[in-house]
C-alpha cells in the first residue's frame, strides 16, 4: 500500500525545545482551561460530516458481499461528498421482485445532523414515495432521523418497506429496468 | 468503662464536627473530579493551545467552535514547489482512539498531487501504519507539508497524476502550479 514519507520527525512529542509553556511538573494541578476551550466542552465524540461520509463511502466500496444494496458517490471528484447514487435490488416474492431500483441521495451540508434527500430515479409505486420519486421526508427513518443513521440505513429501510404488507402487492409502473438486463 | 465510652463519644463528636466543617471542601473536590471527567483530554487541550500559540510555519490550525476534536486548517504551499502561492484548506479530526489512533486529515482544496486523490484523501505513512502516539497534530501537519515538497509518484494514490509526474515532471508541476493559483479561489468556496 503506497504512502508518502514522514520526514519531519524533529518535532516528536517528548522534547519540545523553545516552548513557552512550563514543563508539566510545574503546572498547577487543575489548570484553568482557556476561554475558547471551555466553550467547546463536550462528553461525546462527534465525527464531523465529511469523515463520517468518507467512512460510508469506504463501506459502500467494500460491500462486495451478497448484498441487495449498493451506494457510492455520483461523481468521483465530488470533494463536497454531497450527491450519492444508491441501488436496491427488489425483494423476491414482492411486486418489486427482479428489478433494480436506482436512487439519488443528497447529503446536505448539515448531514448527518439533518436527514438526506432521497429520490427514486425511475417510477415506483410505494406508500412512502411521491409520484415524482421523492421519498417522503416524514416516512420512517427519515421522519425519525437520528445522527447515527447512514445511507445504508435508509436503503435498507426502504427495501424492508417494499416487503411490508402495505406495499408488497402494489401494481408497479413498467419503467424500472428488469434485473439481469444490464 | 463509662468514662471510656464518654471519651469515645466525645472523639466521635469531634470527628463529626470536623467533617461538617470541611464538608464544603470535600464536596467541592468530588464535584471538581466529576467535572474533569467530562473535560477535554489533557493531551488534546495542550496540543490545541500550542497550535494556537506556536503554529508550525505556514500553517493555521483552528479548533471548530462546536467540536474540540475537529480542526480547520489552512496550509500555504511550500516555497519552491508547484504549490507555492496556493492556500490549501484542510480538515483534521481526532477520532475517539486518539492518540492511539492517528488523526484523520483531508484536503478541502483540490490539489494536483500523486499522493492526494480527487476527494482530498492523503496517502501518507504516518496517517496509517507508521502512526505512533508520540506523534502529534503538529508533526502530521509538517509531514503533509513535506509531502507537498516531495511527491512520491512511485507510491501513488492517484495513478493518472503519478504517471503524469513520472513521464512529464515539468508538465505535471506546471499543472500543480495552475492549481495553486486557482486554489486561491477554491479556498474561498464554502463546503
UniProtKB/TrEMBL annotation, chain A:
<dbReference type="InterPro" id="IPR000608">
    <property type="entry name" value="UBC"/>
</dbReference>
<feature type="domain" description="UBC core">
    <location>
        <begin position="48"/>
        <end position="182"/>
    </location>
</feature>
<dbReference type="Pfam" id="PF00179">
    <property type="entry name" value="UQ_con"/>
</dbReference>
<dbReference type="InterPro" id="IPR016135">
    <property type="entry name" value="UBQ-conjugating_enzyme/RWD"/>
</dbReference>
<feature type="region of interest" description="Disordered">
    <location>
        <begin position="1"/>
        <end position="35"/>
    </location>
</feature>
<protein>
    <recommendedName>
        <fullName>UBC core domain-containing protein</fullName>
    </recommendedName>
</protein>
Automatic annotation (TrEMBL), chain B:
<feature type="active site" description="Glycyl thioester intermediate">
    <location>
        <position position="123"/>
    </location>
</feature>
<dbReference type="InterPro" id="IPR000608">
    <property type="entry name" value="UBC"/>
</dbReference>
<keyword id="KW-0067">ATP-binding</keyword>
<comment type="similarity">
    <text>Belongs to the ubiquitin-conjugating enzyme family.</text>
</comment>
<dbReference type="InterPro" id="IPR023313">
    <property type="entry name" value="UBQ-conjugating_AS"/>
</dbReference>
<dbReference type="InterPro" id="IPR050113">
    <property type="entry name" value="Ub_conjugating_enzyme"/>
</dbReference>
<feature type="domain" description="UBC core">
    <location>
        <begin position="39"/>
        <end position="191"/>
    </location>
</feature>
<dbReference type="Pfam" id="PF00179">
    <property type="entry name" value="UQ_con"/>
</dbReference>
<dbReference type="InterPro" id="IPR016135">
    <property type="entry name" value="UBQ-conjugating_enzyme/RWD"/>
</dbReference>
<keyword id="KW-0833">Ubl conjugation pathway</keyword>
<keyword id="KW-0808">Transferase</keyword>
<protein>
    <recommendedName>
        <fullName>UBC core domain-containing protein</fullName>
    </recommendedName>
</protein>
<keyword id="KW-0547">Nucleotide-binding</keyword>
Amino acid at each position: 500500500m503506497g504512502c508518502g514519507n514522514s520526514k519531519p520527525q524533529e518535532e516528536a512529542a517528548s522534547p519540545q525545545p523553545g516552548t513557552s509553556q512550563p514543563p508539566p511538573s510545574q503546572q498547577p494541578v487543575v489548570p484553568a482551561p482557556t476561554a475558547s476551550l471551555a466553550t467547546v466542552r463536550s462528553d461525546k465524540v462527534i465525527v464531523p460530516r465529511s469523515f463520517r461520509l468518507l467512512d460510508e463511502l469506504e463501506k459502500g466500496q467494500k460491500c462486495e458481499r451478497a448484498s441487495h444494496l449498493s451506494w457510492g458517490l455520483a461523481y468521483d471528484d465530488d470533494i463536497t461528498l454531497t450527491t450519492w447514487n444508491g441501488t436496491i435490488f427488489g425483494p423476491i416474492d414482492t411486486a418489486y421482485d427482479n428489478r433494480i431500483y436506482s436512487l439519488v441521495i443528497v447529503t446536505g451540508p448539515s448531514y448527518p445532523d439533518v436527514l438526506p434527500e432521497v429520490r427514486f430515479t425511475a417510477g415506483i409505486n410505494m406508500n412512502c414515495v411521491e409520484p415524482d420519486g421523492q421519498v417522503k421526508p416524514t416516512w420512517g427513518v427519515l421522519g425519525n432521523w437520528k445522527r447515527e443513521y447512514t445511507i445504508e440505513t435508509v436503503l435498507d429501510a426502504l427495501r424492508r418497506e417494499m416487503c411490508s404488507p402495505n406495499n408488497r402487492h402494489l401494481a408497479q409502473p413498467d419503467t424500472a429496468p428488469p434485473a439481469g438486463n444490464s | 468503662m463509662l468514662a471510656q465510652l464518654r471519651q469515645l463519644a466525645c472523639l466521635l463528636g469531634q470527628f463529626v464536627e470536623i467533617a461538617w466543617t470541611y464538608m464544603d471542601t470535600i464536596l467541592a473536590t468530588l464535584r471538581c473530579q466529576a467535572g474533569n471527567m467530562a473535560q477535554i483530554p489533557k493531551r488534546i487541550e495542550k496540543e490545541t493551545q500550542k497550535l494556537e500559540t506556536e503554529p508550525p510555519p505556514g500553517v493555521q490550525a483552528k479548533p471548530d467552535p462546536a467540536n474540540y476534536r475537529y480542526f480547520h486548517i489552512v496550509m500555504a504551499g511550500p516555497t519552491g514547489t508547484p504549490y507555492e502561492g496556493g492556500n490549501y484548506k484542510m480538515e483534521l479530526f481526532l477520532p475517539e482512539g486518539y492518540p492511539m489512533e492517528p488523526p484523520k486529515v483531508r484536503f478541502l482544496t483540490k490539489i494536483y498531487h500523486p499522493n492526494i486523490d480527487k476527494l482530498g484523501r492523503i496517502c501518507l505513512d504516518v496517517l496509517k501504519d507508521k502512526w505512533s502516539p508520540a506523534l502529534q497534530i503538529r508533526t502530521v501537519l509538517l509531514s503533509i507539508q513535506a509531502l507537498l515538497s516531495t511527491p512520491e509518484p512511485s507510491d501513488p494514490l492517484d495513478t493518472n497524476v503519478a504517471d503524469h509526474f513520472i513521464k512529464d515532471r515539468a508538465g505535471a508541476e506546471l499543472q500543480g502550479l495552475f492549481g495553486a493559483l486557482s486554489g486561491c479561489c477554491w479556498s474561498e468556496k464554502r463546503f
